[in-house]
Amino acid sequence: MTAIAVPARRRRTRSLPATPRYVAGRLGQAVLALFGVTTIVFFALRLSGDPARLLVPEGATAADIERVREQLGLSDSLWHQYLSFLGNAVRGDLGYSYVQNRPATALIAERLPYTANLAVAALILSVVFGVVIGVITALKRGRWQERVLMPIVLVGQAMPAFWTGLLLVLVFSVALRWLPSTGYDGPLSLLLPAVTLASLSAAAIARVTRGAVLEQLSQDYVRTARAKGASTTRLVLRHLARNSAIPVLTVAALELANLLGGAVVTEVIFAWPGIGQLTIQSVSARDFPVVQAIVLFASAVYIVINLLTDLLYGVIDRRVATGGNGGAA
Amino acid sequence: MNRRRFRAALLLATALALGAASCGIQPASAGRGPGTIMIDTANYPSTLDPGKQYDTDTYSVYRNIFDQLLRRNPKTNAVVPWLATKWRQTDPRTWHFTMRPGVTFSDGSPLTAEDAAYSISRILDKKFGSQQYANFSVIDKATAAGGDLVVHTSVPSPTLLSYLTTLSVVPKAYVQRVGDKQFAVKPIGSGPFVLQSATAGSEVVLTANPKWWGPPTQIRTAVFRAVPNVASRVADLQSRKVDLATTLTPDAADQIRRDPTLAILSTPTERVAYLAYNTIKGGATNDPRVRKAIAEAIDYDALIKNLQRGYAKPINSMATPLAFGYDKSLPDNHHDPENAKRLLQEAHAVGAKLVMATSPSFDPQVVQAIQGDLAAVGLQVEIQNSDQATYLKKVQDPSHEWGSIRFGKWSCSCLDSDGVIYPLFHTGEIWSSYSNPDFDKIVEQARETIDPAQRTKLYSQAFELLNRDLPGIGLFQAYAVYGANSRLQWTPDASESLFLDQMKVS
């Protein structure tokens, strides 16, 4: 997990105007991180295989391959390629796909709505199920509710997506014929892939929620609230929810960032035309410009979501934003 | 939280999740009416410009939008007229093709020899960067003269007609007007179908071209869907989502066979599963006796019956009976582990270590079966699995330092021995880790000999040399395996084409 909650504490002595400076600092770090990531990916990709060999017909000669390399600009020196990549990237040009001969950014833009829809749907499902299960298992610790729900959560997390996905397809598409097996044919098509993804994320969220609520339950204010006769519902909604929110938000944000980067396995199983499928196709074809663009995009998403999460802490818990003492962060 | 609230939360989550689906993306295809076919392929076409890419899933789609200069008879595989109605050679290197009159592109403009010549020149143009260049590189230039297409080759080429069956003719004026990039997105052809819509990475919808010159097609709409996972393609067939699924594995075929409403359509193709040896820097495999021992250690019947589930045929060389130059007089492969052991002893190679290079693109079960067969006669095989790009870089490197044996599957889409044994075994070719000047001379001569009888004789000599030196072994002839439901009437062909004008759906 990344260091998300810490900076606010470090700036304990500063007051609110520190926030813009904090955001600027984080953005500076973000640019540096993006530069580092793309540089590593640029060189690592070129060490591992030659796209020209994958593009030519089987009977091609060495000269045919060289011809394709030249046409793709791969026969220039590595430094030359790197500098021209950086130069173009700064101008917003991430190059053309070797395979599809279209701008890498256009390919990502086409796939993004699919991945975004899937990610948001999966996140909603996993937050709702995860939080509800987490709260119940914490409140009913040691009771039958916990003994029933925890194994389900663990199974959800332990089953790999390719297995969960295929099981769901076998039951709901092949046997019952209720839901489409693959592709996008309307909102119902979203259900199976979203549940597949949510089964992984919900488990993580449920466990973190459970831990956070258990921690809160041991606090004095809970005992006081109970002593004053607060009902369980009131206790959960008024007190525990806000105070347990920060760790849950952290996990949910990380899950969202992961999901937006493309859920590779789930997208392949459900023939979902999102970023995940594009990633796997581009990596196996060594479609360098597309892989570089995806990595850049996924890193940017990660950084932006982390930054937004940091800022959200302040909304949830004013002590974080004002740099006040203590707090759940 | 009480039960009612819990239930409400679940409902809300589902509703929100489904609601999220409505923003930004459109359902690509509606339900299936009569005359509509839904087809699952493994990949989304890499382009719709027929000058660029040539892979099977890309071909499957765009070859319905465009007409080819020539086609093959799906039953006999003979080259037959299509856009060119007849052809003649005026000298060993010059071919004249008479174009079919009255053919128009779907925008109404006439298709002429000029368009055909442009379609070839475009692939030959270095700046265009066609990945099909290698298939047409024997052509010097293509021009239009007196209504004919005239093709000049650099040397006499007996395989020219084969490769011209893969040439789709594009409209010169339209391509030049809109540019290559726009053409790949909005292609216009003269073929039996026109592009209706394409959803990137997901599906391509074609509808029948009312202006097509051929007999009206029974199929009115075809939806090609990209479903990369084979188990998902099977599920699509089982749930009646699609009518046809391509590129099925033998296991998947077994599953489909158990469903009485589905059928397996399969046919032997020109694809050869083979084992190639490193005869230059392969260690133990530099010795022809070791290569012979390996050939005799392999249980070919088990590969075909158990692993391929019968979707393969035994062969006697690197070529299938479909290829020109195939020599049926050669003896079939045979399994003789005792003789293999004897040969290894003779070569002092008992217990030798062999590196087998492979990639996930090649059936891992076959690779492991070969490893087992070789262990049984006393050879230790270390499988080195790397992804396809890395694998190609390794085995195609001129240093020949890639190991001792490798498994592969080969198809030149040309139904000719030249397209198999020349690139695989001619000295200096990227796939070849073998060198024999006699063999080189024979295959060089054969690829420039027009007379079929003489060519056949040359290939017999070439195969005889290969059977003696064993730089590789043909393991079996692979089948194309499709799954279909009972709506579809179609017979697949050896070239793995997916021509919609040859299909019918009820």
UniProtKB/TrEMBL annotation, chain A:
It is a multi-pass membrane protein. Pfam families: BPD_transp_1 (PF00528), BPD_transp_1_N (PF19300). Keywords: Cell membrane, Membrane, Transmembrane, Transmembrane helix, Transport. GO terms for cellular component: plasma membrane. GO terms for biological process: transmembrane transport. It comes from the Bacteria. Residues 112-309 form the ABC transmembrane type-1 domain. InterPro entries: BPD_transp_1_N, MetI-like, MetI-like_sf. It is found in: Cell membrane. The chain crosses the membrane at residues 21-45, 118-139, 151-176, 188-208, 248-270, 290-309. The keyword Acetylation does not apply. Its main location: membrane. Belongs to the binding-protein-dependent transport system permease family. This is ABC transporter permease.
UniProtKB/TrEMBL annotation, chain B:
It comes from the Bacteria. This is ABC transporter substrate-binding protein. One of its GO terms (cellular component) is ATP-binding cassette (ABC) transporter complex. Residues 1-30 form the signal peptide. Residues 79-429 form the Solute-binding protein family domain. The keyword Signal applies. Pfam families: SBP_bac_5 (PF00496). The keyword Transmembrane helix does not apply. It comes from Amycolatopsis carbonis. GO terms for molecular function: peptide transmembrane transporter activity. Belongs to the bacterial solute-binding protein 5 family. Keywords: Signal, Transport. One of its GO terms (biological process) is peptide transport.
